[in-house]
Design a protein that fits this description.
It is built from 14 helices and seven strands. The protein has helices spanning 3-7, 11-25, 38-46, 51-63, 83-96, 99-119, 145-157, 178-185, 190-196, 228-244, 247-250, 254-271, 278-292, 298-315; strands spanning 34-36, 67-68, 78-81, 161-165, 171-176, 201-203, 211-213.
Length: 316
């Protein structure tokens, strides 16, 4: 996983990347890499944020070696962007504008938004209301009307939402279906739910034990990949890990939280691959067990470890 992919997993990491991108956008046309940052303090004051919050974020950027500055007594007046900072900003821009990534992310964003709106009892008149919501962005980059239209059509075709289509891109009175609600409540992605639906099946091969093979495929070979039941167990484990393994619950540091999220993402990638490797998933879950013991709330650690151990034993 790249540095950018890792950083966007945390609120602070994403905030620092967004600030870095903003500074790159401010680069003078002359090619100079030094710029005045006093506007950051002005915006913070208008938003009611303390001055030290801006200073802290700029200091974090310097620790990453993305910018350089000399800190005067009265605050940071100007910074110099490094080449490393410019490169990271370009990587971040490529990630949040990646059309393939965005087309999947917007589907989940729309479904989550509609689910939350219905929980609040809100009267959603049209799917275009999403564009005014706080969920209308991927890593800070807003979705377009065209992206929303494609997502809503896909969600209807896959029976995750329902509504009345119009001649334009609008979908009137959209509602989430039972199928869509189940995906949200299982903390899954609609994309992963679709990918995992036919990953593996248990069949009997003469002269062999029950193994998993890809159905409706030519030139298949016998494999020892995970069953759908095992995948579901791991999905539940990851949901609990993401809910518990954070500073507020188990008292772990932000570094540990970030590392746990990175490992959890690796597990995600493996279980939703065409042939998930049970051995690799088991090894990654054992890493999560090791991270959990760094928590300070022993009861929570014990509960999390017991659940993960049970899942690991089920994988074999």
């Amino acid at each position: 996983m790249s540095t950018v992919e890792s950083l966007v997993q945390t609120m602070s990491g994403l905030r620092h990347l967004q600030l870095l991108s903003r500074l790159v956008d401010w680069l003078p046309l002359s090619g100079e890499r030094q710029m005045d940052v006093s506007e950051l303090y002005t915006v913070a004051r208008l938003q009611g944020r303390p001055k030290k919050s801006v200073t802290g974020d700029l200091e974090a950027l310097q620790e990453h070696r993305w910018i350089w500055f000399e800190k005067p007594v009265g605050g940071i007046d100007s910074v110099v962007l490094t080449q490393a900072g410019i490169d990271v900003a370009e990587d971040f821009k490529a990630l949040r504008t990646d059309p393939r990534r965005r087309v999947k992310e917007v589907r989940d964003a729309v479904l989550n938004w509609l689910y939350d709106e219905q929980l609040k009892g809100a009267n959603v008149l049209g799917i275009s209301d999403f564009l005014k919501s706080s969920k209308n962005h991927f890593l800070g980059e807003p979705y377009s009307e065209e992206e929303l239209a494609r997502a809503s059509n896909w969600l209807i075709d896959e029976e995750y939402i329902d509504g009345t289509k119009t001649w334009g891109a609008e979908l009137l009175r959209p509602t989430i279906t039972t199928r869509g609600s189940k995906v949200i409540e299982a903390e899954q992605s609609v994309n992963r739910a679709l990918d995992a639906a036919g990953v593996t099946n248990n069949v009997t091969i003469t002269g062999s034990k029950a193994v998993n093979v890809a159905l409706q495929s030519s030139n298949v070979t016998q494999s020892n990949s995970m069953t759908r039941g095992q995948v579901e167990v791991v999905e539940r484990i990851l949901g609990s890990v993401r809910a518990m393994l954070n500073p507020m619950v188990l008292g772990v540091s932000e570094d540990v939280t970030t590392e746990a999220q990175v490992i959890a993402n690796e597990v995600d990638g493996e279980i939703y691959s065409l042939a998930p490797d049970a051995g690799k998933v088991r090894a990654l879950l054992l890493k999560l067990v090791d991270l959990a013991v760094t928590g300070t709330v022993q009861g929570g650690v014990d509960a999390l470890n017991a659940m993960m151990r049970q899942g690991i034993d089920g994988i074999g």
